[in-house]
Amino acid sequence: MGFGFRKSFKIAPGVRLNVGSKSVGVSAGVKGLRYSVNSRTGSRVTASIPNTGIYYSTTGGRSRKTPAYNRQREIQARQKEINRLNELEQAALSVDAYENTIERIHSIHKEADDPVNWIKIRSCNPPFKKNEGQIGEQEHAALEKLHHYKPNLMTKLLKQQNKEIETLQKEVFEARKKDEAEYHSWERDVKIASKVIDGDIDAYFQVIQEFNPLDDLTEFGSGFEFSAEHPKIVEIEFDVHSDKVVPKEQLSLTKTGKLSVKHMTKSKYFDIQQDYVCSCVLRIARDMFALLPLDTVYIHATDTIMDTAIGYPRKITILSVKIDKRALNKLNFNHIDCSDSMQNFLHNMKFKKTTGFGEVEKLKIDY
Q1: Where do the DUF4236 domain residues begin and end (predicted)?
Q2: Rounded distance, CA 169 to CA 204, Å?
Q3: Label partner for 353 (CA 20 to 30 A): which of 40, 97, 161, 359?
């Protein structure tokens, strides 16, 4: 079943993961797992090109769920043209980007992955009955085109029949390769689905790597370590890096449209920091429950502080929480206060409005 000793892997800040074909045992041309799984279950689709690290959207592709995340793309596009803007336009864009950062911090928990139906994936029929000698749809269509080929008069006059037939034969070969890739994709999906359902922890980690559900958090600067030794429980250590995420200055526009920059008060900074950490915790839990057949996740948020006793930075745990799936699913994520929502779960957190987070002990895993 894949447990009995502890297994773990890390996702570094700013790194977009994409597992290569060797790790999933598939050949070139096979669609990324997220694309393949979502297309089989009718969910949203984000495609990854294996071995390239390239992600792209397709029809019904992965879409963000909050206005803040959707507006970020527009702002990023405008920022590329900032040199062409006048002073007032640049000021307005700076304020827009600042406000969008705050909005996204408060929206992180809403951007959860859609649930994956591994039972449905495991029971999916193959694209064609290869073991019975059947060929795929694309090869069948290409062969039909070849068999019904009739050269026109001009082709005969120019003696191009052989060249056109050769082109059609190449199309048959390429179609066969695409069908083979689709078949291997189905084999891979069924194999992974079976392992996930059986509680194989290595398969869990593979799914997390392939789906990369927390990609926007790594862009914020967060890192993650996933650990497990029981198929119903996963432990995640989450590096907050709040100093890189939460703005230290407030941006606004004056009555004349010029940029006003003020130092953010400590109480406001710590309030945003707490919301950010708690929103991330909820998001991490939601993604884990959406992707894997878990009952419980333990999440430990860590941050680096300057320890004045030794004069060096020190990594501490600032929030440790045990989240049960049933309790989490009862929450209305559109209206909760993320910081207040921690009351629904067993957790350790010390927070003061004037000093922010304090160090706490990690919760021990209750198997």
Answers
A1: 3-57
A2: 42
A3: 97
Tell me the C-alpha distance between 210 and 11, whole Å: 12
Cβ–Cβ under 8 Å, residues 52 and 38: no
249-272 residue pLDDT tens: 999 999 999 999 999 999 999 999
49 pLDDT tier (thresholds 50, 70, 90): very low
> Does residue 296 carry a pLDDT above 50?
yes
Query: Strand 312-324's sheet: what is its strand order?
Result: 7-11, 223-230, 233-239, 296-307, 312-324, 346-352, 356-358
The C-alpha atoms of residue 283 and residue 289 are separated, in whole angstroms, by: 10
Length in residues, the chain:
367
Residue 71: how many CA atoms within 13 Å on its side-chain side?
14
Question: Among residues 204, 220, 345, 233, which one has the least CA distance to residue 282?
Answer: 345
Neighbours of 277 (CB within 10 A): 29
Strand partners, 262: 250
Q: Give the Cα separation of 37 and 203 in Å (integer).
A: 14
Structural contact between residues 100 and 68, judged by C-beta atoms closer than 8 angstroms: yes
Scan for tokens 């009739």, then name that residue.
150
What per-residue string of b and e applies to 238-274 under the rule 16 or more CB within 10 Å gives b?
Answer: bbbbbeebbeeebbeeeeeeebeeeebeeeebbbbbb
C-beta of residue 259 within 8 angstroms of C-beta of residue 253: yes
Number of H helices, E strands in the chain: 14, 11
